[in-house]
Every structure is written in structure tokens, then in C-alpha cells.
């Protein structure tokens, strides 16, 4: 059995959550795969900074507090893209401040003793900042989703807060 993943994530404010959920609903209403109906303990719009197996909650929270991890006030989204396997996502602009926040979160997790359990594709230099929109897209569905979503871009969402969350149990801890 795979250990439970935990991640350091950014969550937008209520308006930003509503905006992202409206995109999820737009896809679902068009009959396309969407995380709107995803049955998971945590189904909050978020942007993952780093993810690993069994991150130590106390050590990571303490380290992030000491590092004064300050999330981005504004995150801009300018593209729709996919990961292998048909994962559709909204791509965030990787500006210097967002890259610094992500690198800090990753470094703190390493310092908390999570080195061997961090997921490689969330390492600085390989990380793609994004918000997931849906899973299991076919090429034709990707085209239809792009037709629906691209006219709504760019988006700028504000008021982000940082959290440590357990993707399976739904437990979440705000980062001070």
C-alpha cells in the first residue's frame, strides 16, 4: 500500500475558489471530465508546492513557520495544458516570487527529513505550477476543453494562503 501523500499547497480566497469551481462546473456541464465530481477527502481548489509520502506534520509546519513562507498575493493563469495520462490543468505563470515560495516549501520538507519521500516532479526546476481541472482526457476532449476555457483567460486570483494537507484523509493544517 502506498503511503498517504501530504502536500504543501496554496489555496485561493473564497472568490478565487468560486472562480476555479466555476471552471470545474463548466467542464462538467459540457460532459467533460472534471474534478467537480471528484470524490476525495480534499476537493478544494489548490496549487501544490511540494508533495511527498508521509511528511511529518509537526516538523514541516514548524519549519515553514520559521522560514516565514509567505504565499503569493496574486497568481496569474494564462494557459490550459495537460500532463501525461490526460490530466487537464490550468497553468500558473511561474514568476520569480512563486518559484521562490515553492523552493522554500521544498527546502523545508527536505530539512524536515523528507528527502527520500518527496515526489521528484515537485522538485524546484521540474515543478509545473498548476491547478488540476480534470483527469482522463482524450485528445478530442482536450480540444473541446480548450475551446471552452481559453476565452476565459488570463485569470488573476488573489488572497492565497498556505496549507499542509493530507490528500487522502482530508486533514489540513494552516501554515502560520
Provide an overview of this structure.
There is one protein chain. This protein has 176 residues and is α+β, with helices and mostly antiparallel strands. The chain has one domain. The chain has helices at residues 14-29, 57-67, 96-114, 139-149, and strands at residues 5-11, 47-53, 74-83, 87-92, 130-134, 155-158, 161-166, 172-174. The strands form two sheets. Strands 2-1-7-8 form a four-stranded antiparallel beta sheet, with helices on one face. The chain has a four-stranded antiparallel beta sheet with strand order 5-4-3-6. Helix 2 (57-67) crosses helix 3 (96-114). The longest helix has 19 residues, at 96-114. The termini are far apart.
Give the SSE map.
Layout: E1 5-11, H1 14-29, E2 47-53, H2 57-67, E3 74-83, E4 87-92, H3 96-114, E5 130-134, H4 139-149, E6 155-158, E7 161-166, E8 172-174
Antiparallel strand pairs: 1-2, 1-7, 3-4, 3-6, 4-5, 7-8
Amino acid at each position: 500500500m502506498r503511503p498517504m501523500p501530504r502536500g504543501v499547497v496554496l489555496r485561493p480566497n473564497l472568490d478565487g475558489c468560486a472562480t476555479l469551481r466555476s471552471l470545474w462546473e463548466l467542464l462538467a456541464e459540457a460532459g467533460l471530465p472534471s474534478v467537480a465530481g471528484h470524490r476525495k477527502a480534499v476537493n478544494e481548489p489548490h496549487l501544490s508546492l511540494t508533495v511527498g509520502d508521509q511528511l511529518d506534520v509537526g516538523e514541516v509546519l514548524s519549519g515553514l513557520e520559521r522560514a516565514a513562507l509567505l504565499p503569493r498575493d496574486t497568481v496569474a493563469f494564462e494557459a490550459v495544458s495537460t500532463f501525461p495520462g490526460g490530466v487537464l490543468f490550468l497553468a500558473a505563470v511561474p514568476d520569480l516570487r512563486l518559484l521562490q515560495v515553492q523552493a522554500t516549501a521544498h527546502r523545508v520538507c527536505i530539512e524536515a527529513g523528507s528527502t527520500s519521500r518527496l515526489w521528484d516532479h515537485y522538485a524546484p526546476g521540474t515543478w509545473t505550477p498548476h491547478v488540476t481541472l480534470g483527469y482522463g482526457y482524450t485528445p478530442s476532449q482536450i480540444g473541446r476543453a480548450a475551446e471552452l476555457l481559453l476565452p476565459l483567460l488570463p485569470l488573476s486570483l488573489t488572497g492565497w494562503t498556505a496549507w499542509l494537507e493530507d490528500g487522502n484523509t482530508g486533514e489540513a493544517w494552516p501554515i502560520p
